[in-house]
């Protein structure tokens, strides 16, 4: 079976995790320190994507993921 992520991508994630542990990893726009493990992984993968490494596409939310609203019948007389 083929690799889902390239070795270069996994190195990027590894580097991001080390930076997070050291306390030097910062998020893009706000520049705040990253504390979350998941966020560090996401940053590593996005950097790998920018460099053109083999990384699957971002997962997006489901279409119509919330609760379904029932249609209310109007009581016009």
Count, helices: 2
Q: Indicate the low-confidence ranges by residue numbers.
A: none
Mean pLDDT across residues:
86
- Principal-axis shape equals elongated
Distance between the termini: 66 Å
Number of strands: 0
Strand content: under 5%
User: By helix and strand content, what is the structural category?
Assistant: mainly alpha
Rounded to the nearest angstrom, the radius of gyration is 20 Å
Spell out the helices and strands N to C: HH
Main sheet properties: none
Q: Level of helix content?
A: 25-40%
Description:
- The chain contains two helices and no strands.
- With 77 residues, the chain is mainly α.
- The model has no long low-confidence stretch (mean pLDDT 86).
What key phrases describe this protein's structure?
mainly alpha, 39% helix, 77 residues
Summarize this structure briefly.
Helix content is 39%, strand content 0%. It has 77 residues and is mostly helical. It is elongated, with a radius of gyration of 20 Å.
Question: In terms of topology, how is this protein built?
Answer:
Layout: H1 7-22, H2 37-50
Helix pairs in contact: 1-2
């Amino acid at each position: 079976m083929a690799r889902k992520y390239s070795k270069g991508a996994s190195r990027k994630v590894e580097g991001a995790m080390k930076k997070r542990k050291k306390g030097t990893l910062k998020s893009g726009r706000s520049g705040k320190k990253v504390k979350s493990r998941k966020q560090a992984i996401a940053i590593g993968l996005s950097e790998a994507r920018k460099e053109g490494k083999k990384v699957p596409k971002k997962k997006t939310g489901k279409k119509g993921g919330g609760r379904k609203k029932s249609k209310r019948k109007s009581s016009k007389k």
